[in-house]
């Protein structure tokens, strides 16, 4: 039954003959399995088809019902929570984002804001909580195989607010927790430029450097979920901190304006913004030919090349993808980064920018949830 359901999930409408050819099962077995899947709610029967040349009874047509249930993907961070609802083929039905109170706020307030984002997403998708089969959640902290958050750093501990228990108590859903970079790697291999790559590294271009690593098609976790964490970069000459691309671009741009460097459009942008510069300002200025901004990005490229070379030496990926909210803007880094990387190691991996933008972690959370459904479909009760 599982083999037939898996085949139908990967296909469009199929006939019994199609399933017989694909599985090698007898016709009576295939039809019985399809009838059982229809009763369970996973499959629907479409109008029968008959060609002019066909004799006898028209062929029965079956289709996996992608709306038999839904999954939820949640990206829970410092300042906001983003929730998406997807059908069982991964099509996004709704997305909402809700601001979060600061770490000083009680956990209950943060949990209430996350729940608000989920409720709004479910309402926009037109589904009820009982339609949800599982929720996947991405956070910026290591998560071990048992779903526990590492408590070895204060920042990670601030994210351990009992979200899994809260969602289970509110809705009764299975709740799967995953590290944000790991989920980004899953999303990238599912529907990004990393599709088809079995040896892949995804580096989030956010506040801190972290990698999601896939080796031989398998996501690497490590004993405590810390594979890909780059917390000791202060030990690496020419790097010095685990700051990510977005932080470096913003802070180096502000420093350039403060230090009275050569004429640069960054000074004009900083005055216009009032509160300073965004990383995207530096990227756009460099793309427009600003020499100061271009120098900043060259410095970032040299720094990131060392980080990527270090990671590539350990896991040997075929492709390294820069992902996250500012990934698209950081495309101007690719040429100098690749050149620097070629000088650091023989046969360096290719570097690319993710097309998934700031949705990369929530899409990874959806993929995590779908993998759970696909591996346990026959044990799940639809609409329970």
UniProtKB/TrEMBL annotation:
Q: Which residues form a coiled coil?
A: none
- Which InterPro entries does this entry report, sorted A to Z? ATPase_NBD, ROK, WH-like_DNA-bd_sf, WH_DNA-bd_sf
* Alphabetized Gene3D superfamilies for the sequence: 3.30.420.40, Winged helix-like DNA-binding domain superfamily/Winged helix DNA-binding domain
- Tell me the superkingdom of the source: Bacteria
Keyword terms? Kinase, Transferase
GO MF, any single term: kinase activity
Decide whether keyword Transferase is in the record.
yes
Q: Which family does it belong to?
A: Belongs to the ROK (NagC/XylR) family.
Q: What is this protein called?
A: NBD/HSP70 family sugar kinase
Q: Which organism is it from?
A: Paeniglutamicibacter psychrophenolicus
């Amino acid at each position: 039954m599982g083999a037939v359901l898996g085949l139908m999930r990967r296909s469009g409408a199929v006939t019994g003959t199609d399933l017989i050819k694909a599985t090698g099962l007898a016709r009576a077995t295939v039809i019985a399995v399809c009838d059982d899947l229809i009763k369970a709610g996973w499959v629907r029967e479409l109008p029968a088809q008959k060609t002019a040349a066909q004799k006898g009874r028209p062929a029965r047509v079956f289709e996996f019902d992608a709306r038999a249930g839904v999954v939820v993907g949640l990206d829970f961070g410092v300042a906001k929570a983003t929730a998406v609802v997807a059908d069982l083929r991964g099509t996004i039905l709704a997305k909402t984002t809700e601001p979060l109170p600061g770490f000083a706020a009680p956990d209950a307030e943060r949990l209430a804001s996350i729940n608000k984002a989920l409720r709004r997403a479910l309402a926009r998708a037109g589904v009820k909580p009982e339609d949800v089969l599982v929720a996947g959640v991405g956070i910026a902290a290591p998560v071990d195989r048992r779903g526990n958050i590492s408590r070895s750093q204060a920042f990670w501990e601030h994210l351990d607010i009992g979200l899994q228990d809260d969602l289970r108590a509110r809705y009764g859903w299975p709740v799967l927790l995953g590290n944000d970079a790991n989920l980004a790697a899953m999303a990238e291999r599912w529907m990004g430029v990393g599709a088809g790559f079995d040896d892949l590294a995804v580096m989030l271009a956010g506040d801190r450097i972290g990698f999601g690593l896939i080796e031989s098609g398998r996501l690497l976790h490590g004993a405590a979920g810390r594979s890909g964490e780059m917390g000791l970069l202060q030990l690496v000459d020419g790097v010095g901190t685990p700051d990510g691309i977005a932080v470096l671009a913003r802070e180096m741009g502000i420093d350039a304006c403060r230090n009275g460097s050569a004429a640069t459009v960054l000074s004009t942008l900083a005055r216009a913004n009032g509160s300073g510069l965004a990383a995207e300002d530096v990227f756009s200025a460099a793309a427009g030919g600003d020499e100061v901004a271009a120098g900043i990005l060259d410095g970032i490229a040299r720094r990131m090349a060392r980080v990527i070379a270090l990671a590539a030496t350990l896991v040997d990926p075929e492709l390294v993808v820069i992902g996250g909210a500012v990934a698209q803007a950081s495309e101007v880094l690719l040429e100098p980064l690749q050149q620097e990387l070629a000088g650091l190691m023989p046969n360096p991996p290719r570097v690319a920018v993710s097309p998934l933008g700031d949705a990369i972690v929530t899409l990874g959370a959806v993929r995590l949830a779908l993998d759970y459904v696909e591996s346990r479909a026959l044990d799940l009760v639809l609409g329970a």
